[in-house]
Amino acid sequence: MKTGIIILAAGAATRMGKPKMLLPYGEKNLLQHIVQQAQQIPSEGILIVTGYYDAMIKQAFNNYPINLVYNEQWKEGMASSIKLGLQWWLEQNNALTQIMILVSDQPYLNADILNKLLQQQQQTQKGIIAATYDGITGTPVLFTRPYFPQLLQLMGDKGAGNILKAFSEDVAAISFEAGKYDIDTPEDYEQFCLHNN
């Protein structure tokens, strides 16, 4: 299987008031942590889709062996970043068989979870593998090639959730309870730091 990885990092993080993906995380920042986890799984490579904080993210990843692409339509929402990321991957590698989509504000994401997505796809042969937490099916999520056309038709800020609902019989899940913790506000980050020092 040929897997392309897309990390969504285009938003303005308005509730945080600053680039949440660049907040300190140990000796790195949060986005560097996500990239480091993604680098540990077999893939064709990693693409970060940037937007509002494009220049700052590029500076933070100056010496990383990853790819970055700027989403000029980042204000339109997550769908535009998913589409741009997938289009970029298909231009780079038309033999791609699946795409893994990650967000940049799940601090507990790790390589074990990402490997479980790959393993679950191999074991179940389902077209979509998604993480579940608190009764929610969401990111990280793996889409096989038959779903690329649906991803390329996404609109707005709903992400790929509607595809998961529409094709629920072809979705297999992995448990990622810590996925419910994301960092959207200063309070979220403060709580995360309190529990991880």
TrEMBL record:
Residues 6-166 form the MobA-like NTP transferase domain. Gene3D superfamilies: Spore Coat Polysaccharide Biosynthesis Protein SpsA, Chain A (3.90.550.10). InterPro entries: MobA-like_NTP_Trfase (IPR025877), Nucleotide-diphossugar_trans (IPR029044). Pfam families: NTP_transf_3. This is Molybdenum cofactor cytidylyltransferase. One of its GO terms (molecular function) is nucleotidyltransferase activity. It comes from the Bacteria. SUPFAM superfamilies: Nucleotide-diphospho-sugar transferases. Coiled coil: none annotated. Keywords: Nucleotidyltransferase, Transferase. The keyword Transferase applies.
